[in-house]
Amino acid sequence: MSAVALGRFLARRMAAAGVDPNGTLTVEAVRGRFVPYRSCRGELDLATKAEYDLALLAMLNEPELVEVLDAGLREAVGRELTSPEPELAVLDGFAACMVGLGPALGGRRRPGVARRPNSSERPAAAAEAGVEAPGDAAAEAGAEEPGSEDATEAAACRACGAELPRNREARFCPYCGADQETPRCAACGEELEADWRYCPACGRAAER
């Protein structure tokens, strides 16, 4: 499966959820809500989990598809793609980092996210994943830098991906009502993802 196919799947899921294509999502929302392996493996005809891992990392490594707003995450993804067996574990430490759709998927070009000069500079693993070079027209569509726009990105809801208010602390999402605090296991304190039913560390059922 190519990174482009996964990116298009992400854009469709965001549109279905009513998320602004110019908005931002956390890495956790992308991986856990919009393009989790269990949801896209059938539609995208994924042969293995490893194929999904590689395509997701390659998608995050291509700013025309998904713009990663954290330089540390961009570097970590690039390093992981050069390893013999790339794994999504590299994303665990960047769950709260913000990303957004790139110009090739209908998003705006954001300040501070550099466009890769040419496809020959991509890591070999990304090329093997089938990352396609977006056309010049897609690149030109987002070439203008915003002038007066606020460069500070708003946080996104853990559940629906909608942008949270910038001028106040949002304990709950004003759109879907989801609690924004990271859920934890009542028994061992392990961090849980919103849709997990059991703790991966101790096996206790998650409290709702």
Note the topology.
Elements: H1 3-16, E1 25-26, H2 27-34, H3 37-40, H4 49-60, E2 66-68, H5 71-81, E3 98-101, H6 124-128, H7 136-141
Antiparallel strand pairs: 1-3, 2-3
Task: Give an overview of the whole structure.
The chain is mainly alpha-helical. The protein has two domains: 3-141, no CATH class; 178-208, no CATH class. It has helices at residues 3-16, 27-34, 37-40, 49-60, 71-81, 124-128, 136-141, and strands at residues 25-26, 66-68, 98-101. The chain has a three-stranded antiparallel sheet. It is globular, with a radius of gyration of 17 Å. It starts with a helix and ends in a 67-residue tail after the last helix.
Quick structural gist:
The protein is mostly helical.
Give the CA-based shape.
Answer: globular
Q: Cα distance, first to last residue?
A: 35 Å
Return the string of H and E elements.
HEHHHEHEHH
The count of β-strands is 3
Helix content: 25-40%
